UniProtKB/TrEMBL annotation:
Annotated protein name in UniProt: ABC-2 type transport system ATP-binding protein
SUPFAM superfamilies cross-referenced by the UniProt entry: P-loop containing nucleoside triphosphate hydrolases
Keyword line: ATP-binding, Nucleotide-binding, Transport
Lineage: Bacteria, Pseudomonadati, Pseudomonadota, Alphaproteobacteria, Rhodobacterales
Keyword Transferase carried by entry: no
Claim: Nucleotide-binding is one of the keywords in the record: yes
MF-aspect GO terms: ATP binding; ATP hydrolysis activity
Domain ABC transporter, first and last residues per copy: 5-234
InterPro entries in alphabetical order: AAA+_ATPase (IPR003593), ABC_transporter-like_ATP-bd (IPR003439), ABC_transporter-like_CS (IPR017871), ABC_transporter_ATP-binding (IPR050763), P-loop_NTPase (IPR027417)
Amino acid sequence: MAAIISIQDLAKTYEGGFEALKGVSLEIEEGEILALLGPNGAGKTTLISIICGLVSPSSGSVSVGGHDILHAYRAAREMIGLVPQEITIEPFEKVINTVRFSRGLFGKRRDDAHIEKVLRALSLWDKRDSRNRELSGGMKRRVLIAKALSHEPRVLFLDEPTAGVDVTLRREMWELVRQLRAEGVTIILTTHYIEEAEEMADRIGVIDHGRLLLVEEKAKLLHQLGRKELVLELTEPLPELPSPLEGFELQRSEDGMRLVYEFDAHAESTGMTRLLGAVAEAKLSLKDLTTQQSSLEDVFLTLVEEGRTGK
């Protein structure tokens, strides 16, 4: 699939010498959902702001749909919809006028049918004549999304789209994002909610201290870096490891009621057969035996730690 956004050696240094981005290169494919993860101050918002033309890069290049963001600004910006973190809408304006006005800013002809479609998709049609200040926080965030979709962009940026939104509304937004992707819209989201990226993204990018540490397909990332654990629940506390278990690098809980064995599920040999044989040899009585997969959060924390220590 062709790249709709191409980023080459992008850097941004602010006055005072702070380097927000350090040589970021990235190809974003048309029609995919890319989640950008990173701690506060990692450079996520700066990257989005540069692509959207809100911040000037110090060096490097960015093109959207083949249009350079500096030399063909209008053509590039017309392809982009942006939902910012902050709720910035005119409080006394009606919802429908807010969305119509945003479409007009991009030089698009009035299209009431499209505006109605967007508002209905976001459950805002019944609120179309309400003043923005009368809406709840979640509804105001929906208005921001409607504004971003008003001019029919091919690329949609969601900067922390569900911050401060309840769980029900968050899942409704996830469903909307999937619908947009099905219509061919490319979606890039930044999020602090690891489960949000794990739920929706096709690919995951991890940014820390202005550097892009990794971009990988979600499933492949979990396959490569995710680990599994075998958890042995005992019927009686174990004060110390018996000799048959000493070579397995087991983690024993403080109360001695649990043993944890970490392994690579994709290795030729996981060692579990030998471990269970050693458990039988030690005559341990098991209450339960379960396995669990490392989450994306575990993988994310590992990547950030390795990036900072240079491993």
